[in-house]
Amino acid sequence: xxxxxxxxxxxxxxxxxxxxxxxxxxxxxxxxxxxxxxxxxxxxxxxxxxxxxxxxxxxxxxxxxxxxxxxxxxxxxxxxxxxxxxxxxxxxxxxxxxxxxxxxxxxxxxxxxxxxxxxxxxxxxxxxxxxxxxxxxxxxxxxxxxxxxxxxxxxxxxxxxxxxxxxxxxxxxxxxxxxxxxxxxxxxxxxxxxxxxxxxxxxxxxxxxxxxxxxxxxxxxxxxxxxxxxxxxxxxxxxxxxxxxxxxxxxxxxxxxxxxxxxxxxxxxxxxxxxxxxxxxxxxxxxxxxxxxxxxxxxxxxxxxxxxxxxxxxxxxxxxxxxxxxxxxxxxxxxxxxxxxxxxxxxxxxxxxxxxxxxxxxxxxxxxxxxxxxxxxxxxxxxxxxxxxxxxxxxxxxxxxxxxxxxxxxxxxxxxxxxxxxxxxxxxxxxxxxxxxxxxxxxxxxxxxxxxxxxxxxxxxxxxxxxxxxxxxxxxxxxxxxxxxxxxxxxx
Amino acid sequence: xxxxxxxxxxxxxxxxxxxxxxxxxxxxxxxxxxxxxxxxxxxxxxxxxxxxxxxxxxxxxxxxxxxxxxxxxxxxxxxxxxxxxxxxxxxxxxxxxxxxxxxxxxxxxxxxxxxxxxxxxxxxxxxxxxxxxxxxxxxxxxxxxxxxxxxxxxxxxxxxxxxxxxxxxxxxxxxxxxxxxxxxxxxxxxxxxxxxxxxxxxxxxxxxxxxxxxxxxxxxxxxxxxxxxxxxxxxxxxxxxxxxxxxxxxxxxxxxxxxxxxxxxxxxxxxxxxxxxxxxxxxxxxxxxxxxxxxxxxxxxxxxxxxxxxxxxxxxxxxxxxxxxxxxxxxxxx
Lengths: 492, 334
Known about the structure:
The complex is a heterodimer of chains A (492) and B (334).
Chain A: E1 3-14, E2 17-28, E3 32-36, H1 43-51, E4 58-63, E5 66-67, H2 73-78, E6 81-84, H3 96-100, H4 115-128, H5 144-157, E7 162-166, H6 174-189, E8 193-197, H7 201-207, E9 210-215, E10 218-224, H8 230-238, E11 256-265, E12 269-277, E13 281-286, H9 292-299, E14 307-312, E15 315-317, H10 322-327, E16 330-333, H11 337-341, H12 348-353, H13 368-382, H14 398-410, E17 416-420, H15 428-443, E18 447-452, H16 455-461, E19 464-469, E20 472-478, H17 484-491
Parallel strand pairs in A: 3-8, 3-9, 6-7, 7-8, 13-18, 13-19, 16-17, 17-18
Antiparallel strand pairs in A: 1-2, 1-4, 4-5, 9-10, 11-12, 11-14, 14-15, 19-20
Chain B: H1 6-41, H2 48-73, H3 81-95, H4 111-136, H5 140-159, H6 169-176, E1 178-179, E2 182-183, H7 184-202, H8 204-214, H9 216-221, H10 226-252, H11 263-273, H12 285-304, H13 309-332
Antiparallel strand pairs in B: 1-2
Helix pairs in contact in B: 1-12, 2-7, 2-10, 2-11, 2-12, 3-4, 3-5, 3-10, 4-5, 4-10, 6-10, 7-8, 8-10, 11-12, 11-13
């Protein structure tokens, strides 16, 4: 059978550093092929070459047996390869239809745009995908998840035969993800080839039928997913044995670490109550936009709750700004480390010290020896892989960046750790290290409240789980009495 | 690509160090080349008198540019410094003039009072801008554009559109005096630079500025009071502009209502040539000082070669854009 896409010996270096040493890939028609690998495995470089953004150093790309060369993303599209990127690039002040048909609007008389035809075909596209989005609404009024769906619709509108999806579910909820999977299955039935790139193994096993694994910039292996199990795939991705995917050694104590009673914030959350004990990992599960992050924003003084009480260590507290929360021993690892966690233009050291500057400058001038020591301690403790701590934090892999954010907060010896999607965009190996850090913290008597939209993670790590739905709590369950199905059911 | 793995980092370390070297010293190198070329091509350039002259010419723009560096590092901009130069210059002059008609009643007052008043005027202008930018979230460009107009208007109102002449010799010293042959404005620039360097590189406040400019959201989440930082940088810029205004009037002997027009452009040029990013969080005050020196040396060199000042402006424009183009290439690769 003819291959839709075949790649052999693809190489690419940047300034003497090989990002991709040996990229190999085969895609058959009517299949969903998972492209797996940790951060730094060379997946993004591989995708960018196929998109026509990077020029390959050597290697062959064949489209239906014919050698191809892409100089620009337009070339790739013209040859029937569409890529849905992880980072969204919408034009906020245009409608959904205008975004989908950007640059190839249907023409009307006198060189104008046939808006009616454009809106109609955009709406049909969205309806066929069962995405609940109006083609005439403005992009800026959509949620992140909806924007992601529009991006997907846009890629599909190109009628491409090969569709790459780079972490398409990283910003969307479980229900939307199921819509996406339905769409993928329809495309598959039409004989197209889908390449699915994701860190989420459960999704890969749910939707894909074959896989290819990259590690350290080179092809490691490929095959049918029916012939491999989850631990086997993980072993291939990380290149070594991982005894357990999750690390959980903590045991909740009877003392309460943080208690929240009837917390409300208009149009965001309503009547949220829970208490997390010392030594406990308390999970919060829910869809995007269910009000999970908003709870943390209220607790950390980033947003003003309209009602509710917060008790830390048995004493009622008022938190009106992040400094108040920090003084009480709270730490917040935000959902998007690039947007709210790190100062990407500064060094690893500066980022680790960012939340402890007053402590490190008793007399206004910085104690630079203390800064260097703190940075070294955190790098050792969390095994942050950086050539030097004065290098820009933007040069680290996702997992190491996340450990820098954790280091920034652990430097303060927090009592309550608020974690919002702590392993988002982090590869399997680093994920486990982060689970170990979280578990050790709880085992030492710390309180952890962890938001996650990965069901496996919530069930694997939490002692109890609160399910959020539309800004309200849909119940709190211990890990023994709940399972994946009921969590999804409750959250929708 | 990520460079997490140790074995990858080795090859990268070399190029990273090269990059850092260019980033940290590239501008200094450009400055040295400029000086070398001018010394060879013109015999007067490297004379003590001319060097002192260049430094003197640079001192006012240098002080303004250093203040501007604080603001730009936090993602802001201060377009009002030229007008603040005039306002602070004329208000302080009215306290230290021996003219019976131009001064306020009782003038001349002691120099210290005049300087104190001038500083206060600058700080007040900066505080108004800072308050509007930080509290009311009005874009810095708009806020300081408004201050540019308002401060110029206040200058004209205060002086009735007339200059304030006949400043006392004691006040004029800060613009014309010297210590062991080093002009007083140059000494002042050196002190302003040293203190600013210390603040930006060695203190908590400096770390805050880089954090707020690099990522205000992350800074806020890390417990930093970003409103206060944004406010204070405009106060610093305003205060230094006030000081520059007094240096200018002290040097010329009278405060003119049209003083300092377009000075903000030279100050921004020095900051940009010095490698500070207009998107905030990245840059060094040392670069700004060298940027100001490059502008000063270039003007002086072209003067010595007898090239019209009209051409100088064209060259300066090319220099600003060229410096940023190099920066882009360096940061984002070719």
